Structure formats: C-alpha cells, structure tokens
Amino acid sequence: MTIHYRLSGHIAVLTLDAPESLNALSVDELNDLRTRLAACQDDDAVRAIVITGAGERAFCTGANLKATLPPATGFAAGAFRSRHAEAQQGGYTRLLDFSDLEIWKPMIAAVNGYCLGGGLELALQCDLRIAAETASFGLPEVKVASVPACGGVQYLMRAIPAAHALKLALTGERIDAAEALRVGLVSDVVPAASLLDLAMTLASRIAANGPLAVQAVKQLAVQTSHLEPRDFVAQANRQWGLLRDSDDRIEGRKAFAEKRAPVYRGT
Question: For the chain, N or C: smaller number of CB within 10 Å?
Fold first, then answer.
C-alpha cells in the first residue's frame, strides 16, 4: 500500500491506496500512517485532516492479515513493550490506536466502500464521518471468534445509541450508508463522486476558524465529556482562559467589529 499525502490550503489529505487488499493496512503502513498523523499535528500549515481510501470499493478493511507476521512472543511479553517494538514481533493491533499521538487537529473520515473491522475503528477515531452511498460499515470480528482490538465496541457505543452499537458488534453484520446515517454513525451521505468535495468543504469551514480554538474544542470533547458538570465547566473555563489573550482571539474580535473576514495565524 501507498499512503498518499497532499496539502490543499490548510487541509491535509491522506489516501489509503491498496486496491488489491481493499485498503487493508500492514505493519509498515500503520507505522507510516501514524508518522504522517503526528507530522500533521506538529505542522502549523495543517488545520484539518481528511482520511479516505483510493478507488470505489473500500475505505479500509483493517489490518492486512496476509502481510502481518504471526506473533513471535506471547501476548503478555508484547503488551509491556512499546507499540513499535511489539509490532515488530507481530503484535500490530495497538498501532491502530491513535490516542497516544494526541491528534487535536480535527480529522474527517470520507468513507467510500467497505469500512470494516479495523477500518471502522479507524473511522471511529475521526471527529466527523461522511459516506458515499456505496459505503458499508461493520465490526465482523465475532464471526471469526474474535473481538475488535482497538476500542471498536467502546467507540461505537459513544458514537451511536447502545442498541444499534451492540446489534452491530454482536451480530458482526454490515449496515449500508443509509442505515449508518439513520443511526447517526455518519453525518452525511452523498453520491461517491461528491464525497471528497464534501470532505474538503467541511474541512475548509473548520480550517477557516481559529486553529487553537478548534483544537481546544476537540480536546474538551475528548477529555472532558465523561466528567461531572462542575468538572467539565472548570475545564472549559480553563481553555477559554488559555485562548483569551491569544493573537487570534483578538483578531477575531477586531474582524467582527470591522465586518471583515478574520485572518488567523494559530497564535
């Protein structure tokens, strides 16, 4: 697989390109994806990230089982190693967990075709999900006597009502794009030809806002939604205070008063 990268304005577009494996990811490709996401977080030119799959058949179908080595050691030994070290011995699953990367730039999954297993776990770690009419979604692990290893069940429970999440996870069956829209797994469904245009439009709207404020909103959503009101309000006030004297917030207020578009610099 090749993971294509391009920067369009302030939008980084990552395209998974391995049609022969339905855009499944090998260990090397998972490492490459992690490296590129981390680079996007540290690049001030990037304000939003779009992830999609090449072709029309698949967004991503998870790990490429034909290209992953069988574990060389027991699970316990690998679990105490770093993600990279464990992966070199065949324990690749933690590479698909991006929580350690702390990506606060908003990520949009533009789902074309199959979004299954680890592919759905990838999409669930994105902040927005949109789909082509031909997309389908599922966690089929129970059909092969396994479980989603990268938080798929838990992410799904947070994304959609429990009844729908457990129906997907316990049956292992797929749903189409229309059903994904109905249950709230995606926000929009469009013809395949319009998918990337919609992703870029949404990303452009995000990128036009204050970069630090956008990242602060994502951080609040990820880190504080489980807290009690007293605690999450305190965290919100702290983030507001961090941004209060920023150049961008001052620019935003000036632009509003002067009735012009703001020019944000991420400072």
Answer: C
